[in-house]
Structures are given as structure tokens and as C-alpha cells.
Amino acid sequence: MLDYDAVVVGAGPAGSAAALKLASLGKKTLVLERGPEPGSKNVSGAMIRKDFVTSVFGDGLPVERNVERMKVSLYSSERPVSLEFYPENLATTGRLKFDKWLSSVSEKAGAIVIPKTTVTDIKWKDGRATGVVTDRGEVSTRSIVLAEGVNSLLAISSGIKRELKPDQAVQTVKYVYSIKKEQINSMFNLSSDDAGLSWRIIRADPVLTAGFLYTYRDSVSVGVGAPISGLIEKKIKPEELMDMFMKYTGFEDLFKGFSLREYSAKIIPEAGFPDMLASKSNVYLCGDALGLVDPLTFDGISPAIESGLLAGEAAFSNMPEFEYRYSLIKDKEISKIAKERGLESRFFHEDAPSKYLTMMSKVLNDWASGNLLGIRGDLISGTSMKDVLDFMIRMR
User: Fold this and answer.
1) Which H or E element spans position 202?
2) Record's Pfam families (predicted)?
3) Which of 91, 111, 254, 307 could form a disulfide bond with 19, CB atoms 3.0-4.6 angstroms apart?
């Protein structure tokens, strides 16, 4: 039987960060990935914070385009209000190349990565995990890191977490179109082949939705997500949600005639840590398995990496459960999500999303028309301004 100091389940950003930390600390580390290779289950791409990723994994980050312009569109009616600004430090990357690079860095540090291997069970003895069972045999170990993603079957079967309820998850649907880089530059008025656009689109009718558009070197991804509970209540199927999104944004006409490279659907957790266990004995959760997706910026990569590092440290020393939980709570990256999640539920109850979008749209329209008194009335009406101020104070 194979024997390792630590076994990491999953070779995504969280798993590779954990493996990098463990291997760097001298632990004999095995990473088991059920896909053909790291990133194969997330082919299209994501937006990342470059400085954060390189501070952990070093140079060599495979970037598709640097985000030179970010756009936010708020729909309170059929005519959106849009803002554009010019961020620094953001880039789009292909998940296949990105995840393979992260994994290669952990391998250079000494971790062993074995793909095409599914972990089916965890072996326990006297309350501690002693190994894992895979479809290719058993492996004994002193600690385990579960970076298995949102569908955390091992964490659920081990009694560490429960299955997500409809009001605790978002259903997303995404299209990826193959488009020549010159056409992408022309379509979105980009200055070069290395320049990119990131676009966020928020709408509250008939259900709260958050859409996105990312430009890559020779492709564009567009997608939309909505709370599963809202889709069930309104009897909207995921494909119908995507059809509506493509129509009201005008993307249906914009991408007409281009080849559809990829269609995918994914569940994104809206609930998780700190309202759940983070570990059990010598088994530690990180990334999507802990529900660590920023509900306001939609960033799941950075908290995945950060929690992976913390899980690696915990697995290195077989950290007690309370100590690992405390390390997550006091971490700046993770605590921000914990604070936002509690406030998010307040902002998005009942008709609140429609109210906020209407208020913001009216404020911007009043500003553009020079109606400063109107802005004052918009901000103090109802409880909107109180909620915003409360959010800012509690996020300090």
C-alpha cells in the first residue's frame, strides 16, 4: 500500500496551494485528481488577481488578457445604467493552462500529482483518518486535505458538511464562443491583443441574476447565474435563464454566426464557512468545499488559494479542529467573505434587489441630468442608505 504524510484530494487552485505548502514544508505529499489532468473540468477560464496568485506561486502565470476595462451594467428596466472603469492587477486566464501551471509549481516543490484517480472513501480508525480508498487502490496517510469542489461527496459522507439547499447555491450557465483575436479587439474596442474586458451585468427581474462576459485571447465567455431557490419559485429552467440573458443583453445578436466552443453549467455555493465545520480530526476542507466564493466580487480563485495554504499548514501539524477554524476566521481574505455573506442575505431578501437597482439607476440618471436634489431624495428614501452605511461600517 502506498504511504504518504498527506493526501490532497483535488488539483484545483485550493488543492495545488495546499500541496505546495505541504511539499515546501518537507511533507511527502500526494495529490489525487479525478480529471484527466488538472483543470480539465474547468476548461474555459476565470478572472484572477495577478499579484495575489504570483505572491504564492511565483512567476510564469499564464495570462490570456490583462483586463484594461471593467464594465458594470445595472438593469432596473429594459434600459441599463452602465459604469466603466480601468482596474489594475486583473487578468483573464484559461483554467486548463492555469490549473496545470499551479499543479506544476506544487510538483516542482516535491508533491506527486496523479490524475485519472477518483477517491471514493476515507478510511477511519478511532476517530482519525488513516487513508483514502480510490478506484485504483488504497493510500495510507497522516492527514487529508479535501479540495474536492462544491460537490463535496467525501466531506458529506464523512459528516463534515451537509448537502447544499436550493437557497444556499447559485446555478450558473455559460457559453464560450470561438472568435479571432482581431475581431474581439474590434467588437469590444480593445487596444491590443493583450488587452481585455470584464463585464458584470445585474438584473432583478424576473429573478435576481448576475451575468458576466470575459474576453480571452481567441474566445469570449458569457454566462449568468441565479439562486436555485428563485429559479424553482419562478419555474425557470437554467437554459431558459440563459436564453433570457442573451436576449436582454443583446448578446444573442452580437455572437450570432460565431462557433459555440463550450456549453457548461455549474453550481456555485452561496453558503458555507463559518456556518459549517471546516475540519474533522485530521481532515481539512478548503476552497469551494468550504463555500468560499466572494458573494460581491464573484472571486473564488483567491479565497481558494488562501484557504488551501491554510489547510496545508493545518495538515502539516495535524492542527486541532478549533485551531484550524480560528486560522480561517482571522485570515483577512476569508473573514471578508464571512462578513459579506451575512450582509448579503440582508441585501437580497424579498424585493430588496429590485429596490437597490432602481435606486442606483435613478441616482446615476439624476446625476447625469444635474438633478442634485433628486439624488438626495434617492439616497435617503426607504432604508437603502441605512443598509449601505451599515454595510460599509461592518466591513471595516
Assistant:
1) strand 195-203
2) FAD_oxidored (PF12831)
3) 111
C-alpha cell at 332: 483577512
Q: Are 120 and 131 in contact (CB under 8 A)?
A: no
CA distance 25 to 28: 9
Check: CB of residue 269 under 8 Å from CB of residue 284.
no
For residues 9 and 117, what is the distance between their CA atoms, to the nearest angstrom?
A: 10
**Angle 332-347/301-317 helices, nearest 10 degrees?**
130
H or E element at residue 121: strand 119-125
pLDDT confidence of residue 377: 64
* C-alpha cell belonging to residue 170: 447559485
Rounded Cα gap, residues 137 and 117, in angstroms: 9
pLDDT for the residue numbered 301: 94
Q: Which amino acid is at 271?
A: A
147-165 pLDDT tens trace: 999 889 999 999 999 998 9
Q: What is the pLDDT of residue 396?
A: 43
Query: Rounded to a whole number, what is the distance in angstroms from the first to the last CA of the chain?
Result: 51
Instruction: Find out whether 194 and 90 touch, Cβ atoms under 8 Å.
Output: no
Distance CA 9, CA 32 (A): 5
Nearest residue to 205 (alpha-carbon basis) of 354, 65, 66:
354
Give the residues of the chain that fall short of pLDDT 70: 43-44, 77-79, 342-362, 364-368, 371-396
Closest CA to 17 of 330, 295, 301: 301
